[in-house]
Specification:
This protein is of the alpha+beta class. It contains nine helices and 26 strands. The strands form seven sheets. Strands 6, 7, 8, 13, 14, 16, 17 and 22 form an eight-stranded mixed β-sheet that branches. A five-stranded antiparallel β-sheet has the order 4-3-2-1-5.
Length: 407
């Protein structure tokens, strides 16, 4: 099978034949959302492709739906078969004439949320991030709480406020403590980001059925970049004793494109050694992480490059812990890694860490310095990963611009 595509320019960028991420798009001429696969700067219309005989009869109905749910629910046999077919179609120039008419330039497409989010869980899986926050919030105590190295800490988020990249983010308001102590209500003054990687469940489970970490690829369809916007001042007042709520639930942005797990196979790398050894339900026959390099840009200036490969808890362990009590999985469940941070100062995936709680402002270009987000600021997350034969693929970017709080 060929490694190159007949689509012009596809191999020069992050969306070549080795990637083929899925998304949902529409056009001015046809405003109905439909499923497509990205190749270079073009989108192949899978609904149009499914009107013929290209896909097997049992697969075609999934591509007539308005999001990825039906296809994701079909499981690995369908995912691999379709990926194989699309690779052949887009890699063999003999298919150019019949397929070129089904391409839409990305620049002319309107992108939509790629799947309906069933549930949303956010973890806290980076040891560097958890250590930094422990040092900020508990300077006279051990930075990691006693449970942290025994289980992947997480919380249940709000599925209804997961939004696609490019959606403006309205500054949230809530209760907060002032520097002098009195309680007040108003717009968040410490609005932050969290650079994360999310994993999308395709195949669900019955209630009461735990999932082994070794069955990760049987349930998880793919990955997306995530920005879990955070109002740190609202969160600081509300989170004791039950954890994050309004400081997190106002918006979570994800990329337009879901990268299939098979496209990330060349990015698999050995995960960090865990000490102490985890309980049996968290042990993996093959313990692996993904070597993703994330870029965080603030008003056009890159301010951080968090490395995902160093996460203490792996995506497979997060899935196992999320279900060990018998909680069921549903198609469209999204779970995110929590903030990705590395050991170096320029690898911190939140502005709380990057500015050390506002003590150390960062430059965002043209003499501008920031501690937390101001109205009008734009944050863009990108990520790349190793592809085959020394190439690199790129996960779909996540962007958002801050709007003023509502009156």
């Amino acid at each position: 099978m060929t490694d190159t595509s007949w689509v012009e320019g596809a191999e020069a960028g992050p969306y070549g034949l080795a990637h083929l991420p899925y998304g949902v798009f529409s056009t001015a001429k046809d405003p109905a959302p439909r499923i497509g696969v990205r190749i270079g700067d073009q989108i192949l219309d899978l609904r149009a492709l499914a009107t013929g005989t290209f896909f097997l009869p049992w697969i075609r109905p999934a591509f007539h739906e308005h999001d990825l749910g039906g296809f994701m629910a079909m499981g690995p046999p369908a995912w691999r078969l379709v990926r194989h077919q699309l690779t052949e179609l887009l890699g063999d120039a003999r298919h150019r004439d019949q397929s070129a008419t089904l391409l839409t330039p990305v620049a002319k497409a309107r992108m939509h949320l790629p799947f309906q989010v069933a549930d949303y869980v956010d973890f806290y899986a980076s040891e560097d991030h958890a250590t930094n926050l422990g040092r900020l919030f508990r300077p006279d105590a051990e930075p990691l709480l006693p449970n942290w190295k025994h289980l992947p800490v997480g919380y249940h988020g709000r599925a209804g406020t997961v939004v696609p990249s490019g959606t403006p983010i309205t500054r949230p308001s809530g209760q907060r403590k002032t520097k002098d102590g009195p309680l007040e209500f108003g717009p968040s003054a410490r609005l932050d980001i969290e650079a994360e990687v999310g994993f999308v469940v395709g195949v669900g489970t019955e209630l009461g059925t735990p999932v082994s970490p070794d069955d990760f690829a049987e349930h998880v369809f793919g990955a997306v970049l995530v920005n879990d916007w955070s109002a740190r001042d609202i969160q600081a007042w509300e989170y004791v004793p039950l954890g994050p709520f309004l400081g997190k639930s106002f918006a979570t942005s994800i990329g337009h494109w879901v990268t299939p797990l098979d496209a990330l196979a060349p990015a698999r790398t050995t995960a960090p050694v865990q000490d102490p050894e985890p309980f049996a339900y968290l042990k993996e026959a093959e313990r692996f992480a993904y070597d993703l390099s994330i870029s965080v840009s603030w008003n056009g200036t890159e301010v951080s490059r968090p490395p995902f490969a160093g996460m203490y808890w792996t995506p497979a362990q997060m899935l196992a812990h999320m279900t060990v009590n018998g909680a069921s999985l549903r198609t469209g469940d999204l779970y995110a890694s929590g903030t990705v941070s590395g050991p170096e100062a320029d690898q911190r995936g939140s502005f709380l860490e990057l500015t050390w709680s506002g003590r150390d402002p960062v430059s965002v270009g043209e003499g501008e310095r920031r501690t937390f987000l101001e109205d009008g600021d734009t944050v863009v997350l990108n990520a790349t990963a190793p592809g085959p034969n020394g190439t690199r693929i790129g996960l779909g970017e996540v962007s958002g611009t801050i709007l003023p709080a509502l009156a």
